[in-house]
Amino acid sequence: MPELITTPTGLRILVEPLPHTYSVSIGCFVHAGSRHEPDVHAGAAHFIEHMCFKGSHAFPTARQISEAVEGVGGILNASTSYESTVYWAKVATIHFDRALAVLADMLTHPLFDLRELEKERRVIIEEIRGIQDSPSDLIHELLQQVMWGEQPLGRDIAGSVETVAATSRSDLIDFFQRHYNRNTMVISVAGNITVDQVVEAVDRAFVDLPPGLPPAPLLIPQACRGPQVKLMVRDIEQGNFCLGVPGLSYNDPERRALQVLDSVLGGGMSSRLFQVLREENGMAYSVGSYHTELSDTGMWVIYGSVEPESLRDGLVICRDMLHDLVRHGVTAEELAMVKEQVKGGILLSLEDTWSVASRNGAHMLRYDHVIPVEQVVAEVEAVTAAQIQQVAQRLLLPEALHVAVLGPYDVDDQRELVALMQGEV
């Protein structure tokens, strides 16, 4: 278990010594993501993530920032999600001070240089356009649109071309100053390093981080009523589809049952979706499912890509598979196998210093403490077949179902798809 230290200035630091390793990973977890943005500045959190890499007080150029870490064989990266932004570095233990100095300066003294900002604006717009050119990525965005509509969860985390083009330097600085502070940030470190060494160094490196306020409560999203289908016509070689329902928050007591259920349905080559759609029918190369947990809701999604003429049959198989889960649940054999699969995946993920630091930091943002791995494993082991069927019946309601389809179809096909999801054809 990591040790949590809250400094006299209020900065939360998590340290998990892993003396058997040769590396150390540092994660800076900021409780600010795309759900904290006003609609007119959609994409601001992601834009700021980019700008923190473009120059800071001690490392004035993007090249100096990257070379400071990558030049000693390390990794420097970041990601933006709906409710948080994470900046992290992984280096050999001897380079801990260097990596910490880079991350701290990026997050306390970013330059927001206007020339770099305008260049990065174009880069992000091309990133957004790249999603439009990638059917396997775009289909997930289409599902979010049909499920959540005109809400933050219904838009791309990167924003739109229009909002990114309209967001000014002062807009970004305002968001940064409101959301990057000691109240919203957790520093998580894991690796071959001592607690005292980390706390002293982190406290010194982040001395200029302002106190600030915690983020305002989020508006609870309301999913659009289904069943709904969103069809985008594209002259491409495959039919891409997503089926989804609103899922569970990371605080929901039934989340472990859904975790096991999701693995039964689409978690790997032994899952029902893979075995039926790919192995038995040869319909799809890519098929699976996933569940995204947020503070107050979630998304449970099935996805796949098929030959255009196989779309209808593929969707019918998925629809009937969901109906079967509601009526009959899972078998004892599936339950036993998937429990071991989930537990094994959890334990294997903890062999890397960044995986450990990432888990600890994410838990601190979510729960204000780190859940012991042993507790998670015990909760998975305790899941019963009845609990799995109960969560399937709770989530797989006709009015909760949303479908996105992208491929070489006709707009008239949308009516048939709606009828198909309603079980009328």
Question: Which SSEs are present, and which pair or pack?
Answer:
Elements: E1 3-6, E2 12-17, E3 23-30, H1 44-51, H2 62-70, E4 75-80, E5 85-92, H3 96-108, H4 114-132, H5 135-148, H6 161-166, H7 169-179, E6 185-191, H8 195-205, E7 228-233, E8 239-246, H9 255-266, H10 272-280, E9 284-293, E10 298-306, H11 311-328, H12 332-348, H13 353-367, H14 373-381, H15 385-395, E11 402-407, H16 413-421
Parallel strand pairs: 2-6, 7-11
Antiparallel strand pairs: 1-2, 3-5, 3-6, 4-5, 8-10, 8-11, 9-10
Report what the structure shows:
- This protein has about 425 residues and is of the alpha+beta class.
- It is built from 16 helices and 11 strands.
- Strands 1-2-6-3-5-4 form a 6-stranded mixed β-sheet, with helices on both faces. A 5-stranded mixed β-sheet has the order 7-11-8-10-9, with helices on both faces.
- Helix 10 runs antiparallel to helix 11 (about 310-330) and helix 12 runs antiparallel to helix 14.
- The protein is globular, with a radius of gyration of 23 Å.
- The N and C termini lie far apart (about 55 Å).
H/E element sequence: EEEHHEEHHHHHEHEEHHEEHHHHHEH
Please identify the structural class as seen in this structure: alpha+beta
Distance between the termini: 53 Å
Bin the strand percentage: 15-25%
Q: Can you tell me the overall shape?
A: globular
Mean pLDDT: 94
Please work out how many helical segments DSSP would assign: 16
Major sheet characteristics: 6 strands, mixed
Order of strands in the sheet with most strands: 1-2-6-3-5-4
Q: Radius of gyration, rounded?
A: 23 Å
Oligomeric state as shown: single chain
Low-confidence stretches: none
> Helix amount, in percent?
40-55%
Number of E-state strands: 11
